[in-house]
Amino acid sequence: MSYREKSAWVIAALMAVTGAYYFLIVRAASQALGETAPAAVAIGFVMLVVIGSIAVQVVLALSSPREANAPADERERLVAQRSGNWSGLVLATCAVTALGHFLVRSDGSMLFHLVMGSLIVSQIAEYAFQIFLSRRSV
Amino acid sequence: MGGPPPITNRVRELREAREMSQAALGEAIGVTRQTIIAIEQGRYSPSLESAFRIARIFGVGLEGVFGWEPD
To answer: Can you give the pTM of this predicted structure?
Structure first.
């Protein structure tokens, strides 16, 4: 498994776990307040993602310093471009769905959480596409 | 995406004849070992520049390494 594929697996797992944490804290806060949790609950999630991403990238780089420092080759760049393109479509679809929800419910806090969720889903999708394309013809 | 590209190659055959590892070939042309594996398995057609580099390393012409089989 290449360094970039390994990295994609680890970051995708990190995003899935922190995304689940985000969903749980929004649900718990919303139940406690009796209305949609305010956007501020996202601060903990963002900090967790930033610190977690730095930590796993450092560990990965220390385990394979040569591969970590090497620039992406032509196939890896193509995989990254296609994954980015496809995950952009996922983001657009989720964002339009979130906007549709806002049109019906006019709940600004929910719009914030749905857009945040769209970002999380599209990031996971991007890494999933990278893993998929790394193993298929490109 | 779709099926494998219609470009065929003899990279594995030429590399093995020279007792060269996939990692060594990848390093020589500036790609990862995984990309060499993908080329050998027909899952990736290299750029023209990489194709020329591969041919030069093996000391043959481009058509000595790569072939094209249109549908």
So the answer is: 0.85
